[in-house]
Amino acid sequence: MAPYEVHAYSPDEFRRLIADKSHGAPAVIANSLHAVYFAEYFRELDAKTIVVENDYTDRDYLEDYAGYYVRCFAKYGRRCTRLHFFKRAFATSDFQSVLASDAPTLSLKQLQDDYIGFVVVKPLPLTAIGRTCLLTYDKAGGRRRFPNTRTYEANLYGLPLTIDTLAYQQQDSVVAACATSALWTVFHATGKLFQHTIPSPVEITSMSGVLTKSDSRRFPTAGLTPTEMAQAVRGVGLEPLLIGAKDPATIQTTVYAYLESKIPVLLVFDLKDDPTGEVTDRHGVAVTGFSLGKTAPAPYGNTGLLLTATRIDKLYVHDDQVGPFARMEFSGQEIKTSWIGTDGKIGSISALPKLMLVPLYHKIRIPLETVVKIIMIFDQFLEWMRSARNSPLTARAVWDVKLTSIAELRREVVASGLAGDSRERALTTSMPRFIWRASASIDGVNVFDLLFDATDIEQGKLFFAAIEYDAATVAFVKRMTPQALQLLHQHPPSFLAVKPVLDWFHP
Amino acid sequence: MANNEELQVDEQAIKKAEELAQAASQWLASPEASNKLSDLLRQCTIAAKSLAEARRIDPDDLNRPVTK
After folding, report:
1. What are A77-107's pLDDT values in tens digits?
2. ipTM
3. Which chain B residues in 7-26 lie under 8 Å from chain A, judged by CB atoms?
4. CB–CB of A392 and B52 under 8 A?
5. Which of A125, A179, B33, B40 has CB 3.0 to 4.6 Å from A24, enough for a Cys bridge?
């Protein structure tokens, strides 16, 4: 077998290669949802050429192989195949000239510029899609956001290629079900962010505590419960935060707040076949991006709080049954998936969200909900000031609430164009490592950021500083604050959580 | 030069805001304003409850396998 092959890309050629390299049945692979999805995805990425790297050793598959497949009577291979994709048309002779460095007709720069990633093909008949690193969708002018991508290196016979993405793989239904695959993706992001080792699927399933199960077999795995998923998160040294997902706004605000700080969120939901209305299975995906497709935020809760997060109209998820960055679109209380329903149509299965799991560094102790409650009260004070005659607050504030780090915050302050004392104060104020940042804007102008200590305790002060951008708005708020503080004390103590914020604006 | 102009604009905006605040603060001292704030804060109490309810997890969901 030649070490490499070069093929012109077409959906048929991709399917043929998957079937050939995995020893799977071509008809089964051709009719899979993965085949349909990848064909669409490669069309978006404008794939032109596939370089096949035969006899490739993949660490994740090797661990799974050692943990299970090696003991099977049937001979499953231990080596994989890696398919590399380029949006440039070239022939075997071009690629050969690069490797031989013999009057090369392609440059390394051209290959890197046109590199769109790779797919590892496992030698398993039905679940062949292994570690997959492909470019994200186009960012669409900032509407689509994929904040938790990282740089992956692919050394192709000495050619150093890189790709910014987040790894994906299909469950093999033996050592990993969907929950394990979603956790594996999540750990690829948090491993880099919080410096922990990234376990293979078989290691994740083992860490989840299923090894101590007494009521069923460990492998093949039938899936993990959220409790077991949380245990796997603890296994890599992180703390699991489980949050109910009863309404779209809760999902939007959670996804926005954590993804913007590069922490992926795992979403668990029931699948509902729309044509029949039947709720079938429970499924888990890693949320890896979102689209801010709505032009204006929707009022959140009965106070009418406006959060940027509610502009999210779509989530992009690593769905092991579909593919990387698969779309899920909000539709009322449900979310449309890219699954095929009983009517044979893509998108005719809806997700009924149940819960989310966020893997957090142990020092991130304050949940989003606590900060949103304080913002909600302060926003009502702003609304009160706005209702005064001649108030210069011309529109309701829109809040952008997200987790950030001291380094990221200072980087953004430097890039913001903020000048003078406010800038110096923002850059030199002593801050905790993790910060909840609530940025208020009025009529599209950022007026101030409120900063909360994400490492504090719930009973603590939390708020520690504001960064003031719009001097006129801040001056107005400061003049109104003494009256606000006086009235605050006439209300129940539960509202005192907002006092440190008002104190900041007290002249 | 440009910085001086920007500074002047800023100072004018601050002065204007303070004048507006002066006028607004008369209203804020009225019982009507106090009642308005009470209404607004009452909404927060209801909103906080629904916020917590939306984030509540059904205990059965914690132990149901995610299988598909």
Report:
1. 999 999 999 999 999 999 999 999 989 999 9
2. 0.83
3. 10, 13-14, 16-18, 20-25
4. no
5. A125
